[in-house]
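The instructor's notes for this session suggest beginning with a concrete chain rather than abstract definitions. Hand out the sequence below and ask the class to guess, before any prediction is shown, which regions might be ordered.
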Amino acid sequence: MMTRTGEASAAIATGTVAEVTRVAVSTVIFTTRRLEGADRPAVVLPLVRRTRDPYEGLWALPGGWLGLSESLEEAASRTLAETTGLAPSYLEQLYAFGAVDRSPARVVSIVYWALVREDETRTPQPEDPENVAWFDAASLPQLAFDHNQIVDYALWRLRNKVGYSRIAHGLLPDEFTLAELREVYEVILGRRLDPANFRRQVESSGTLIPTQSFRTGSHRPARLYRYDRDVELADRGPLDARQ
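After discussion, reveal the predicted structure:
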């Protein structure tokens, strides 16, 4: 007697099932950038304009289908490079989005996210540059599929994670001042932080190492710091291998 699973497999093999569930991989890439007319940077991300249905003409997250011989992270890296030219050194799996009505076809999207420095976004050349643009994460247009919900979730994760990991390092150069670090926190959290309290908290966190270098300018020279590389950028738990 054939089980339901066996019946489904047989139906798919003989082509009697119209649709099967497909797996897509998308990526949310955040950086900070000072937008025209703004006095402070904003969290921004790249989006890709869809050139075919469904949702032709709307903006969407970079992504594509999972290849049969690819890991999820390999697919995320490949589709991101193909659509935006970006190649972040660190990708983290965000969530799986699989609502039945999120796409006309049955599609489950595995979403990754990453942070990149603003200078890293200047040189990559996407395959179709006219259909790639950067948007303020706080004021997005209506996106394709459920991608507004995905970005909202990624922002929520970022704001929570910045408080207990050194993930903000992904937006900073190797060496930085405490004022630069505080600005990154303020941009992510969307509020001002008391400089004295911030200094006290980060210096007692054990994640920063003071260097012997200073940044000079019109103000008092500011000491440069770097993150302790023995502290992971973010906790991956027991998953040592890429998934």
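Then share the key points. The first strand starts at residue 22 and ends at 33. The radius of gyration is 21 Å.
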